[in-house]
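Changelog entry

Holo records now carry the ligand SMILES as an explicit input line rather than a separate metadata file. Below, a converted record for zinc ion, shown in the new format.
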Amino acid sequence: MPDPIALAVPFFFVLIGLELLWARRRGVRVYRFTDTLTDLSCGITSQVVLIFWAALQLAIYDAVYRHAHLVSLTPSWGRPWLPWVVAFIGVDLLYYWWHRLSHEVNFLWAAHVVHHQSEDYNLAVALRQAVLTSWTALPFYLPLAILGVPTLVFAVTHALSTLYQFWIHTQLVGKIRGPVDWIMNLPSHHRVHHAINPQYLDKNYGATLVVWDRLFGTYAEEVERPVYGITKPLASFDPMWAQVHYWLEMASMMRAARTPFEKLRVWFASPAWKPEGYVVETPPIRNRTKYDRPVSRKLATYVALQYVGVVGATFALLTWHHGLPRTVVIVGVAAVLGALVAIGALLEGRPWALRAELGRLALGGLALALVFSSGACRRDRHNVTMHTIAGESTILPARAVAPDAASDAASLTRSSMQVLDVDGRSRRYLLIEPRTLEPSIRYPVVLVLHGDGGDADGFHGGFPFEQASGADAILAYLDGIGSSWDLETTFENRDVKFAEAVFDELSRRFPVDRSRLFATGYSSGGFISNVIACQRHGLLRAIASNAGGAPYKQAQTWPNGYPKCPDQAPIAMLALHGEDDYGVTLSSGRFSAEYWAYVNGCKSDEMETTGYEPCHVYRGCPSGKAVGFCPIPGLGHWVWTRAAEATWSFFRTQ
Ligand SMILES: [Zn+2]
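Structure line, unchanged by the conversion:
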């Protein structure tokens, strides 16, 4: 699933621009260059780090949901709105308690404090986020998994709650009166939350609703002008210092604490509490001067230009990290973080700023070099001549799915979750088998592979392949570990072994045609189909990859530099890809077709039409080793509505 927060990034910037203009027209100054950049740097830091653990966090929620849910609130229950309502109220209430404890308990505050460090209040402050709060919040949300809120419903509701909270970070919207003021969390309420005026401290914790504050006695009305920030100012533009300073403060409190009990108390006490004799100097609240440093116009221009590059790189990482090799992502994230530190140092006029700037430029250069050498952006396209063929295609004949395919599929097949031990790990897959097996038939098997963050059950809901294959095939929707696939391991890959084990198991239990095992997958599942085809020659007969790409970084290389697996052999392959796919780019899908056309020895410069308008197949491929590419107009990072039908048509002819 595309990250909704990443998709919203351009809108954030447009709205920040509008707020800036609106403030200027009203003659008020709500933004300072230095402070705003630090807000954005904190936001970028938290987002790029999330790349490494967002999937894991969702997998933890998902594991709890699967193994411990008490009620089943699946949308198919007859009341499709029910899980959404439970999720909305649940996320909001649990957010309230997480947020409240994040202000009342030191170690939670150490994570959350980042969001409160700005001494200004504007839309950019909304983006000032902490790296660790996604971890501190996760345990608070797990009751929803136990309550049976499905993972996807939770993830979407949580993302919408986060997006809602963006607009309330503004001074330009005054007090809104009426019933909405009683129910919804509004800018005026949240200004109070960000203020350090004594009567405003520890108030208004709500996310989208303010009713929890009214109910639990933490509501305060905005009366006097709020003073924003934290009681002991951060006084720094270094986004890394912003993330860690309170942890270090806690460490020094631990050192100052005299008894083991007091040391322990440092973790759980209120941030207002200090060990005996530990003094914190705090400037007065009223008439406080905000921390700032003069920045010359020249430096501001340089920093702003660099920042455009950093934002671009961040956006690219957030959107395309699924399709990039891990090393590229790691170096890319390091380059972004390095740039943020260097920019902070330049703004603060640190003596080491120039060295940091040069170091991070080198790191950025290395990241770019890795991207271009990884093949992720390969575009060595040949000029392809398209031939229109007369009559029906023998490789991809049109094969419309009957209008009642859904009910047919349901009556012809049955599904069950299966567990298999693979290398000491229990792996799950959803088996779709024909209700009656014809004794005279040996059945083909199709492995269906979900994308990152998904699972067998969920993907089956969105992509019911049996509506195309009916009772003619046995299907296995495999479940990835942590909702993902291992695309990196080139030898003894656990997911390749899993695919093999499922096929062996099915061959034992059913009359299977052992020469007709197919795999199709979406996004990361499309990539792993390619990896299985590459690493286990002779196992699969054909693959179809949706919104995926070719295998990268394998043990060997072909003479032209493409990655190669030991003993790799030609295999039939169909790549389907949305033209508007910004998750894994269209060029990545096109390259996967070019890749197999090369491996199979097809004519790379000649293609012909098929029974499916967007799809073309290469000419001159060996028999039964066809390669086709279907760029689908208007499709984003998802599976084409006719994908199952076209894929099954392709598999049958190979
Ligand atoms: Zn807060």
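Spot-checked after migration. The chain has 22 helices and 13 strands. Residues 141 and 177 are 32 Å apart (CA to CA).
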